[in-house]
Specification:
Number of strands: 0
Number of helices: 3
Structural class: mainly alpha
Shape: elongated
Order of helices and strands: HHH
Radius of gyration: 17 Å
Helix content: over 70%
Largest sheet: none
Mean pLDDT: 89
Low-confidence stretches: none
Number of domains: 2
Length: about 70
Amino acid sequence: MKVMGITLLMMGCLMGFSLGLDILQGFDVSNALQNAVSPFRVMEVAELVVLSFLLFLFFGETAYEVIKKKRANK
């Protein structure tokens, strides 16, 4: 659970930093958001499948650890 929290916190901080820099450069908020997600829009199908699989493994492992700890506490 800590790993997922740290990962999401880091992603949020980095996206906020990126958005802040874009806004300071004179972009409006909608363009800044488009710049933040543009790497995902140009991915090919195979790359999206691999990304989805890795995200599934990450969240699946985290969920498994949480369930395992709850069962051990009972």
